[in-house]
Design a protein that fits this description.
The protein is an alpha+beta fold and 325 residues long. It is built from 8 helices and 14 strands. The protein is 27% helix and 26% strand.
Length: 325
């Protein structure tokens, strides 16, 4: 780890408090000049580091720059590897490369913007700078391809709980992977996996999470009428992205060792946006209407078809039909 990264970690750990150059040099076992150089490099990257004679250096409490150190400040989960970028093509795409290179479970790749963000059904995921949080988790679970569904539902519940923990905003889940607040979509989840053809299990899985924190400059595109954000504008005095990233990881990895027991099932069900609603089911280029009855234990959706028959959906996409005025 470079000196500037170690200095940043120390400042993040004491965010809002002053650390003298001498104290930093002694704790990091480097020279005062190395500390000064690191501070200069961090400032050049945009970190709001204050310096006061006879007091030292201080990272402003409302620093909004996403970094591995800023996320780690909020983490209670051990043994995660964090890699953070200002902008990437797609966190899922880059993490798949890391997975193929042998990266271990618990590798987390996050970014403040994506140029080629992806959603389900090959849709683009709008990921402009300075408005959202985009992160992907590398997992190597002992699951069958069918059971990979648990990773998406686990992530959905974890993100919903994290949003309420950090922002106090009530969050609902649209089966199977979209989160809504105030009637607007604020988060999408994309789970991708590589299969072991001999065993039928997963070699690895990548869970990608994109959260809209603030409206982008100019607003959301007209072709995304459902899109919304958690906050109408950037909150003052809150480093929302790092705090939310830490909360998501804490929640997800508290559930993950217990996937078989589905400890998040009741929370996921309680937050459902579709249960008790008329829905449209999308299957390829075809659609049909049904009534969403309940969730099965495997998170498949039990529906009553238009002809009265009861069926279950294990995959696919649904939309809630608007209520007639």
């Amino acid at each position: 780890m470079q000196v500037k990264d170690r200095v940043l970690a120390a400042l993040e750990d004491q965010r809002g408090a002053y650390l003298s150059g001498q104290a930093l040099a002694e704790s990091l076992q480097v020279s005062r000049s190395a500390v000064w150089k690191a501070i200069r490099q961090l400032r050049e990257r945009g970190y709001p580091i204050q310096a006061v004679s006879n007091r030292g250096y201080c990272l402003a409490p409302d620093s909004a720059i996403l970094s591995a150190q800023s996320i780690a400040h909020y983490l209670t989960v051990p043994d995660l590897t964090l890699e953070v970028h200002e902008q990437v093509t797609s966190t899922n795409t880059l993490l798949r490369q890391r997975a193929e290179e042998g990266a271990a479970e618990g590798f987390v790749l996050a970014a403040a913007a994506q140029t080629q963000g992806r959603g389900r059904r090959d849709h683009l995921f709008f990921s402009p700078p300075d408005s959202g949080l985009y992160l992907s988790l590398l997992l190597r679970p002992s699951l069958s391809a069918r059971e990979a569904f648990l990773l998406t539902t686990c992530a959905a519940s974890a993100v919903a709980q994290a949003i309420e923990d950090c922002a106090g905003i009530e969050t609902q889940i649209k089966w199977v992977n979209d989160l809504f607040c105030g009637g607007k979509k604020v988060c999408g989840i994309l789970t991708e996996a590589a299969l072991d053809l001999e065993s039928g299990g997963l070699r690895y899985a990548i869970v990608g999470i994109g959260v809209n924190l603030f409206p982008p400059a100019g607003g959301f595109p007209a072709d995304l009428p459902e899109a919304g954000a958690l906050f109408p504008e950037r909150p003052q005095g809150l480093e929302a992205r790092s705090q939310l990233a830490g909360a998501i990881l804490n929640r997800f990895f508290s559930f993950y060792p217990h996937l078989a027991e589905k400890p998040f099932f009741e929370d996921y069900r309680r937050r459902s946006l579709v249960l008790g609603q008329e829905i449209t089911i999308l299957e390829g280029n075809k659609t049909r209407t049904a009534f969403a009855l309940d969730l099965e234990e495997d998170f498949s959706l039990r529906v009553r078809e238009a002809d009265g028959t009861i069926t279950t959906l294990s995959t696919g996409e649904v939309r809630v039909r608007p209520t007639a005025p």
